[in-house]
## 1
Amino acid sequence: MTLTRESVYEVLGTVMDPEVPVISVVELGIIRDATVDGDEVSVTVTPTYSGCPAMREIEDDIRTALLKAGATKVHVNTTFAPAWTTDWMGPEAREKLRAYGIAPPGRAEQGGLVTLTRRRSPVACPFCGSSDTRLQSEFGSTACKAIHVCNSCRQPFDEFKAI
Amino acid sequence: MMVQQTTPEAAVSGVTTAAELNVAGTRGPSFGEPIVEYLLRLGDDRLILGHRLSEWCGHGPILEEDIALANIALDLVGASSMLLGLAGELEGKDRDADALAFFREGVQYRNALIVELPRGDFGFTIMRQFLFDAYSVVTLDALASCGHAGLAAIAAKSLKEDKYHLRHSSEWVVRLGDGTEESHNRVQASLNELWRYTGELFERDTIDEAVAAVGITLDRDALHAKWESIVNDVLQRATLTIPEKTVMASGGRRGRHTEHLGHLLSVMQSVARAHPGATW
């Protein structure tokens, strides 16, 4: 089978985020480019968080999937600019997150310095939909998540934080 | 220290060569181009502070805070890996981020003194974190639009993460300062001790002037003013007072460190040095 840019993206669409296995690396927005030269494939990836330990695993998964799809050589390059933002995640990916029990990210703050006394609008509970929720901590089980608690259904839940 | 004789292949895989370790005696600039020295300052600050924070893993005062400190440590070590990686590339001696992190001596470290101080109690850790986060956010914000494309990209990425760090440490400073008498006294004592290490963060030397040639021109006085306005605002809400007439400590940027850095490195570097080039 001859690989094309489209077929490479199709394959990448089956490579899931190891921490959030319902969305693919394409949906996550970290695939910045892919080029095909005969049987050789180059994929450019941008990291989510600087220290995210899943990045290396993601690179291995990308390599394995493309080799399995017929590539003879796979180069995975890293780029830092433009910096990854959760704004690159489309509506479908957000709905998948919600169905999986993770509140999708809101819009990322643009520019400027940090607002120290930010009053966040409450994040809707992914289980019962209530907006009567409270932020427990902006740092959660992985670099990309915050912890909330729903006051209505009493369920703690993760939020994929906007960055 | 035992020095490993290594082959060129080993050097590529992250083990430094004997000749490179022999420059340990110099305390002045010893990494060639000023930009390399400049990147090491930025990278070492984050690596050493990240390591200090990681010491809390499993010891945080509450579960959420344990997780938060570990997350912040991870971001900082991740940022240092990008910065040291770029430093190694520009140095051109086949040293990657791991080689620079694990096979330099204390005198070759370029971090500011404030990040190497022992973690102290939780109040000390949070106060140090706040003073550093505010410095980091104003600095990265400026570097994100500097003329050095490689550094600007790393700064723009780290800035997003550091804004989360600063909000977190600010909230804690207010909560502890404006909390109980005990928590107030502890963070005030931490502030009194830490203040003398803040001057170094805004020092300017020949390296800062030299990197103007590659497009990095930070106005340290303007950054200092921005930092002060963030710090004053939060400390005021926290009912804390900045100590007066402090003599500022300095030396980290030139490899003159406190006794604490050596102890930290002996832990941080031990595995990499016991098993040079090991992978898993």
## 2
Amino acid sequence: MFDNRLFRPGGPVKPEEKDWPSFRGAINEAMREEMRRDPLVFQMGEDIALASPFGVTTGLAKEFGRERIRDAPCAEVAVVGAAVGAAMGGMRPIVEFQFGDFMSVAIDQLTHQAAMLRYLTGGQVSVPLVIRLPCGGGQGAGSQHSQSLYSWFAHVPGIKVLLPSTSMDAKAMMKAAIRDNNPVLFFEHKQLYRTRWPVPAEFRDADHVAEFGKAAVRREGVDITVVATLTMVHHALAAAEALAAEGVSVEVIDPRTLVPFDVDTLVASVRKTGRLLVVDEAYLNFGIQAEVIATVAERAFEALKAAPRRLGNPNVPVPFAPCLQDEVLPGRARIEAAIRQMMSR
Amino acid sequence: MRAMLLIRAVEKAWGDAYLTEEISGIPPSLSTGQEAIAAGACAALGDGDFVFTTHRGQAAQVARGLDPKRILAELYCRRTGYNKGKSYHVTDMTRGVVGMGGIVPAQVPIAGGMALAQKMRGTDRVSLAFFGDGASNEGAVHEAAALAAMWTLPLILLCENNRYCITQRDTDALKGPSIAARAAGYGLPGVVVDGTDPLAVQAAVAEAVARARAGGGATFIEAQCERLTGHLIHDTQPYRSREELESAWKHCPIFLFGERLERERILSADERARMNREIEAEVAGAVAHARTQPYPAIHEAYEDLWA
């Protein structure tokens, strides 16, 4: 379903996709609508006013001016700190990181300050901020620009973690993130930016916002549950389509939000199928895949007909060379192989 | 004078509570020797202004007029403390006091953010970040100072140079002429002030506040003083010689300011002693109050995380 060429400038738009909103355009539209609705919303990030690296903030500086679309210096600690302080002071900041990997530079401001200050002050402050983190591999961007580090942040208390996989979700989840009164991380898979998706009518509804903690059942099936996020949702759907021809009925669940996590939809699905495969680009060690499997083991162990499996990065940096990069990232072919193996037992 | 005496009395009560094992956990961090900085700085601020404290934050909390009863209730981990017993870093948003310091430089970028909000919302209010000589070496401080200059933020960066970063002497860690000399590199005005003189601190901060309110941006102030007690209450400072400590106590701001007020016939020794007795009675009352307050209920461990 995915074509790596989509990432590169000048990638083709198929005729049937022409009227579908792009993933990055959906995020742009969400931010534009919310900035029109609420004058307290503003943005900070490197190059967001003049030359947004992935084009997500294109045109916003023209409409809202350079005070509200603030080009930030290369000073991630100060910028995230500024977002925390401004949020405590009643503003609603959105911060863009050019690559989500750079969040590591400012992790204290996020996990110890933004996430904890409400608790530490006995509920005296709220910290409504959104940090946008381009993530994921597949672009040959190298080890420090290709990671999927959401487990780091889902691990600590006080941060909502969002993983949109379609244009509709990108828009509705971004709008909900901006209106949320807590710190929210919005992970944007770079392979999705230029993709286009058909959308329901509510995409055009400026008042439609997502509800967090509601997984999407992207495809219903009865033989196996595949939990997948971001681009892996689409890889899993492609695998499911191929396996349907072989008589295997695959259910694909997209959690959409890691914090809060929709345990009920997951458990209900595994109770129905009895098999669980979790697919994510994240490093496998102590990662999101393990957390999903542990949750099912605690809640629905007796429903399992086979040992759960997980696919992910086998704990090496995402390599620069495309042939090596493709080796360590999961994808449609590995998902198909894993499902066949699980169904043969 | 009253503010400085009250700071010292509240902190003494806190330290005593730890030394007598009435409270436990991480030992109290006293600002003995630094009282003039908080007292002077807070005297230059008004309603709606914000201060962000260090781990040595009780001085600023008292100087901003927080209630010693609720400060001590918090430090006794009681639910009627300002933070419901959830932090060593007392906060009162209604009086513009954000208690921070668990991670040394973190309050400085956040104070910059509050200043950004104050500016974007069209107010003339300002934010002040306290930080120490140790924190001045942190990247977060450099970044926040550079950003405050770039965005002309109404921020006062107030470095309390108490000469020691735990056991490390400032002269071992700082090789420039002063910490404030770094301000020029950020593009900010830099001021060195005698941090044992509350009036000098007040004047320096007032000038910075006036500049910030008028849209002139941030100021970097280094207030120099001597840390008289240990890093935390249990630290007996074996790394400092007796001569050095004796010499340091000659810079005690309460001693110096008391002498000056006496010399200038503003406050006699008797009047000061009477003032101190009143303060000690008030603090004794606050301690008695804190002791009677309830601890948080167990379910409160799960509250106040999400907004």
